[in-house]
Amino acid sequence: MGFAALLLGACDQTTDTKQNTAAMATTTATVSSTKQSAQPLKPEVVMYKPPTCDCCTGWAEHLRKDGFTVVVHKRDDMDVIKSKYEVTDKLASCHTAIVDGYVIEGHVPAADVERLLKERPDVVGLTAPGMPMKSPGMQTVGQKPEAYDVLAFDKDGNTTVFHKY
Fold first, then answer.
1. Comparing C-alpha atoms, which of 127, 122, 124 is closest to residue 150?
2. What is the pLDDT of residues 31-43, one digit of tens each?
């Protein structure tokens, strides 16, 4: 029974109440499941990492737990990747990722990636330079991150603090 028929049936005094109740429940379930499936998916993250780097794999798992799909490419030429995406030595970490046109360098927390995608600032991307201990992929479960900064960087290499940990 379609939604219009359901409404008409509700006004028709001769329609069986049980039939109306069942039709309403079906319509409610359909609308509810449509709303759930209409939630926007997070964009795919493409990560480039050295073949033997385990902390990079840990970072990818951190993003997956937050609902991102992560495609991993193992590369021996990370210097070429970093150059292509304007990651200078002072901004560099072990892996480089691309998400929705932004560069994510190193162990940037998923919450910062989400904020970047929501706010859409005019930057090349975010970096957690080096390999900050206890950052996602570098931490033992349950430990809070030690003090480090996630930086936003532009095409000229200028940085601003995006988030302090």
1. 127
2. 333 344 455 589 9
Neighbours of 148 (CB within 10 A): 20
pLDDT in tens, 75-99: 999 999 999 999 999 999 999 999 9
- Measure the CA–CA gap between 5 and 31, rounded to whole angstroms: 16
What are 42's two structure tokens?
A: 């997070």
First to last CA, the chain: 55
Q: What are phi and psi of 14, to 5 degrees?
A: -90, -10
Task: Determine if the pTM surpasses 0.70.
Answer: yes
CB atoms within 10 A of CB 127: 26
- Distance between alpha carbon 161 and the CA centroid of its chain, in Å? 20
Domain map (residue ranges) of the chain: 3-37, 45-164
Question: How much of the chain is helix, strand and coil, in % rounded to 5?
Answer: 40, 20, 40
